[in-house]
Amino acid sequence: MKIKFLGASGTVTGSCYVLTGDSGQSILIDLGMFQGTPAIEKYNYEPFEYDCKLLSGAILTHAHLDHCGRLPILLTYGFSGRIYMTPATRDLTELSLLDSAKIARSDNKEFLYDEELAARTIQKFETVQYRTPFQIGDFTVTFRDDGHILGSASLEIVDRTAVGNYRKIVFSGDLGNTPEDLLQETEFIDTADAVVIESTYGDRLHPKSDPSDALRSEINAVETSEGTLLIPTFSLDRTQELLHLIKHLKKSGEVKNETPVYMDSPMAQKATLYYMKYSKLFNPHIQDDFKFGSPFDFPELVIIDNWKESQAIHNSKGAKVIIAGSGMMTGGRILSHAAHYLPMPSTRLFIVGYQGDETLGRNLLEGDRNIIIDDNEISVKATVNFTESMSSHADQKQLLTWLGHIKDVKKVFVTHGEDNVRSIFAEKIYKELGIEDVTLPILNQEVVL
Ligand SMILES: [Zn+2]
Asked: Measured in angstroms, how far is the CA atom of residue 19 from the centroid of ligand 1?
């Protein structure tokens, strides 16, 4: 068995691996976009270091762009196989790819693919349910629910032609911050010869505070100051989790019924409809909520459709909540709200997810109070707050617990983390689980097992 690391090896983003079995057949696992600084994003445009015509097929772990965002380039490189994923991942990935093609075109910058190529890529999608083994060439693959976002999966892959010591390899995908409000708990895996594990938060523990406490105090604060609470958010999962928490806070009277909540993200709105479609994938207690209508809807929720409606929010008086993308404030509708509201002392900016290096969200978190949005200098007077309790990624302890459940592991590859984080996590794996062979692969490295 051989594995080539074509992304997320030294960076958090750009997930991509090619696994080659002992018979010589190969499959691709994820083809994510490199996201973050220009130095990282330039990797998206470098030639792909594998001959895609040789691939028997591809597998996608989940719909986040850092895992699926480069899939269309497969077609330009002559890939002729199918791309396998769970049904929910198919729907959400279709949304993500078409949205990213549209944004790229409207940005007028260099772009990887257009909507037509994204649509042709979607034609290659095949769906398989969790826990149902299927075959791609000489490989048998099983999706396990990893509890990260709707439809996301860890992969168990067996090379049926294996002659050496390595027959079964597990790819963690992104592991969820389990147990969490909406999704089912992360599924454990019994055995593997080798494991490729993500390490986004491999160096730290999430505070065990209840995310709804932090959210309630943020909303109560703007209710008192008659200000605006801005929540930059990711369209998949985080938005739905926020809406669900707010619904419960309103129902229990912990926040005022009359405080409007604007959801200003067409992509999140579409994703929420898919979250409704796959209600069976949720925690049993949320499934009860579905009996009483949508768990993501309440009377004061205002769905913003177009740009004109988005701008009209600025004329409304009184306390309000605005949920808008993008999650790291690198684009999207959040920027015009940030430009308008951040100079006001009554505004609160509440950051609920991972912020990549050098993004506007990270800069604000690190205390930058003079920012630039669309060439305009903005002096920030708002209060900026952050919670990690809503993270959709496992922390160090959760990662170790998941890995510790897998028996007979001979080798571990740590990917999908910043380099200093990977080193800290690798050390922990050795100390706590006694696994000696822990590797931090570098970009385009190939390792023979
Ligand atoms: Zn993810």
From this structure: 20
Position 311: which residue type? Q
Considering the domain 2-204+392-448 in this protein, what is its CATH number? Answer: 3.60.15.10
Q: In sequence order, what are the beta bridge partners of 207?
A: none
CA–CA separation, 266 vs 304, rounded Å? 7
Distance CA 346, CA 343 (A): 9
Say if residues 326 and 332 touch (Cβ distance below 8 Å).
yes
Displacement of CA 436 from its chain's centroid (Å): 30
Ligand 1 centre to CA of 97 (Å) is 14
Centroid of ligand 1 to alpha carbon of 175 (angstroms): 8
Q: Tell me the domain boundaries of the chain.
A: 2-204+392-448, 211-386
The class that CATH gives domain 211-386 is: alpha beta
d(CA 104, CA 314): 27
- Whole-number Å distance, alpha carbon 176 to ligand 1 midpoint, is 9
* Through-space distance between the first and last CA atoms of the chain, rounded to whole angstroms: 5
How much distance in Å is there from the Cα of 432 to the middle of ligand 1? Answer: 26
Per-residue model confidence as pLDDT tens digits over 224-282? 999 999 999 988 889 999 999 999 999 999 999 999 999 999 999 999 999 999 988 99
Peptide bond preceding 179 in cis form (omega within 30 of 0): yes
Q: Is the pLDDT of residue 178 over 80?
A: yes
How are beta strands 55-59 and 26-31 bridged, if at all? Answer: parallel
* CA 379 to centroid of ligand 1, rounded, Å: 33
Q: What is the dihedral of CA 242, 247, 253, 257, to 10 degrees?
A: 100
Contact 199/176 with Cβ under 8 angstroms?
no
Ligand 1 midpoint to CA 407 (Å) = 25
CA of 192 to the centre of ligand 1 (A): 22
Contact 202, 414 (CB under 8 A): yes
Give the distance (Å) from ligand 1 centre to CA of residue 30. 11
What is the distance in A from the centroid of ligand 1 to the CA of 392? 8
Ligand 1 center from residue 309 Cα (angstroms):
30
Q: Ligand 1 mean position to 302 CA, how many Å?
A: 27
C-alpha 266/C-alpha 374 separation (Å) is 21
If you measure from the C-alpha of residue 162 to the centroid of ligand 1, how many angstroms do you get, rounded to a whole number?
Answer: 30
pLDDT tens per residue, range 50-75: 999 999 999 999 999 999 999 999 99
Query: 55 is written with which tokens?
Result: 């691939």
pLDDT value for 448: 96
